[in-house]
Amino acid sequence: MAWFKREQAEIDASGEKRVKTEGLWVKCDQCRQIIWKKDLDQNLNVCPKCERHFRIDARTRLALLLDDGQYQTEDGNLVSTDPLKFTDLKPYSDRLKRAKTETGLNDAVINARGKLNGKPVIVSSMEYAFIGGSMGAVVGETITRAIERATDEKLPLIIVSASGGARMMEGVVSLMQLAKISAALAHLDEARVPYISVLTDPTTGGVTASFAMLGDLNVAEPGALIGFAGPRVIEQTIRQKLPAGFQRSEFLLEHGMLDAVVPRKDLKAYIGRALEFMAA
Ligand SMILES: [Zn+2]
Questions:
Q1: Beta bridge partners of 46
Q2: How far apart are the CA of 46 and the centre of ligand 1, in A?
Q3: 189: which of 21, 121, 144, 222 lies 20 to 30 Å off by Cα?
Q4: CA of 55 to the centre of ligand 1 (A)
Q5: In terms of Cα–Cα distance, which of 258, 161, 268 is closest to 219?
Q6: How many Å lie between the centroid of ligand 1 and the Cα of residue 68?
Q7: pLDDT digits (tens, 9 = 90+) for 145-163
Q8: Torsion of CA 64, 67, 68, 73, to 10 degrees
Q9: Are 50 and 28 within 8 A, CB to CB?
């Protein structure tokens, strides 16, 4: 008989979305309570028992932020050219094809325009289900176009991040997007147009290292994983145990990396108030 027993399936390394669906019931991976799926849906995919914020897709996010759930999408026609003809376990082109079928999107971001509390805004919303929301040339170009449109039309910009970082399969082309987007944001700043960055679970790597942290206001959802390198890599590098809650929104707020942590149900009202304040 073993001295100790490890509870099975503790670590979910699949990178797939965290909601475990079994028909009408869902088990919360934080409080381990069983939740009626309808309750979860009605509560904006936040656990009614422990407030765990589950991931939501880009379209749900847009509907949540924009008046009457109405918006027009733009730049959805851009597609990756697979510049390196990259293959790891399987060809990048196959991964793209699969992600397109699964999400109905051409890449990991949706550009939209709509109204937030009656005021026109430009929103870029990232889709984690598309190859981990990774940023290749298409995501970079799409977000840059949203920024340039906001600059030209003097409309407030909101970018909702949900990303594992740069897209490895596009190598240096994906890294170039950090500089490109940051340069466009500098122009937006010169034009004195407000930019609010919303960081959701997870926001890591090159996305954190560029536009996600460059907002006039950087706000995050509760409990979101936000960082550059992952905790395991850091622990191995510095050979120290990291403190509890490291790289979660609340920890980052406490250490001055964020301006606010806002629950999903209050997010729209919060952004609306902030935009009004910035316009004054
Ligand atoms: Zn829960």
A1: 53
A2: 8
A3: 222
A4: 13
A5: 258
A6: 28
A7: 999 999 999 999 999 999 9
A8: -80
A9: yes
